[in-house]
Structure formats: C-alpha cells, structure tokens
Amino acid sequence: MHELSIALSLLDLVAEEAERQGADRVLEIHLKLGPLSGVVKEALLGSFELARENTPFAETQLVIEDVPVRVLCPTCRTTRTVVSIQELCCEECGTPTPDVVSGRDLEVVALEVQ
Q1: What is the pLDDT at residue 107?
Q2: Which of 65, 68, 66, 67 is nearest to 30 (CA)?
Q3: Which of 38, 88, 96, 104 is buried most, with the most CB atoms less than 10 Å from its CB?
Q4: Residue boundaries of the structural domains of the chain
Q5: 87 bridge partner residues
Q6: pLDDT at residue 1 above 70?
Q7: What's the pLDDT score for residue 39?
Q8: With DSSP H G I counted as helix, E B as strand and the rest as coil, what are the percentages for the chain, rounded to 5?
Q9: CATH code for residues 3-113
C-alpha cells in the first residue's frame, strides 16, 4: 500500500511549509486527487489517519477534492469529461482521445494554519 508512504511524505512536506510560515498548528491540508493518479482516496485517508498519530499533526484533517478526468476532444475541439476512466472518449460525441487534461492530479493546494 503505497498510500502510507504518500501520507508520510505529505506530512514531511507540510511540516516544512508550516515551519517556513511560522505556524503553530496545521488545521487542514487541502489536496486535489484525480482517479488517474494511482492513489486510492479511501486508502490515502486511512493511511493519513495512521501516519499522523503521535505527531504534531494528530488533529490535522486531510480534505480531498476529487478531480474529474477531462480530455481534449479533437472533434469537439474543447475540454470534455470522459465516458469512464477505462474508456477515454468524449462524453458528448464519443471520440476516443489520449489527450488527458486533468485527472492525474495529486496536489497540495492549500494549508489552513494557525
């Protein structure tokens, strides 16, 4: 389960940023997560709970925003959601496309500190 190593790395990153900002506490970590990131949301949340135990982040909450898979459709010439993550086709016209615009995300977007 590589989500535990991701959770531990996330806490290391947050610790460095909190120190840089001179924050006493980190209340929330906001993360964007796409289905093509290779990370299972529920496993990451569970791993984060485990990783934060007995650390200065024991009360910190992990807030995950789900990012949909979106592709650039060559037929519609615009960004569209896909039929499914197994079938990277435009939801509107059905054209297959390999041009993924979003959905691979694993990004810390904000920290709520005190």
Answers
A1: 96
A2: 65
A3: 88
A4: 3-113
A5: 84
A6: no
A7: 96
A8: 25, 35, 35
A9: 3.30.2320.80
Q: Please say whether the beta carbons of 52 and 44 come within 8 A.
A: no
Confidence of residue 74 (pLDDT cuts 50, 70, 90): very high
Alpha-carbon distance of 29 to 31, in angstroms, equals 6
H/E segment holding residue 14: helix 3-21
64: exposed, middle or buried (Cβ count in 10 Å: 0-12, 13-18, 19+): middle
The residue behind tokens 């691979």 is 104
Closest CA to 79 of 91, 67, 87: 91
Is 83 in contact with 94 (CB distance < 8 Å)?
yes
